[in-house]
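Private note to self, pasted from the team thread so I don't lose it. Backbone tokens:
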């Protein structure tokens, strides 16, 4: 089963990893550690809440205007 991992830099260092198909979120000091932790968390979640993943989410970027500071 292929799933999606969305990684973002964490404020305290390392990375936050999220799987949008299940909502599982975890973190790791490196990208590799974050993905490994996400795999483990997602596998445990799916053992408890089995489901069929219908497809991958659409992941895209969007922009907002910069805020004006007085």
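Design output:
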């Amino acid at each position: 089963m292929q799933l999606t991992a969305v990684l973002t830099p964490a404020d305290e260092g390392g990375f936050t990893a999220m799987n949008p198909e299940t909502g599982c979120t975890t973190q790791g000091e490196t990208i590799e550690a974050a993905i490994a932790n996400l795999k483990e968390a997602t596998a445990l979640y799916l053992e408890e809440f089995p489901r069929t993943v219908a497809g991958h989410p659409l992941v895209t970027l969007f922009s907002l205007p910069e805020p004006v500071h007085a």
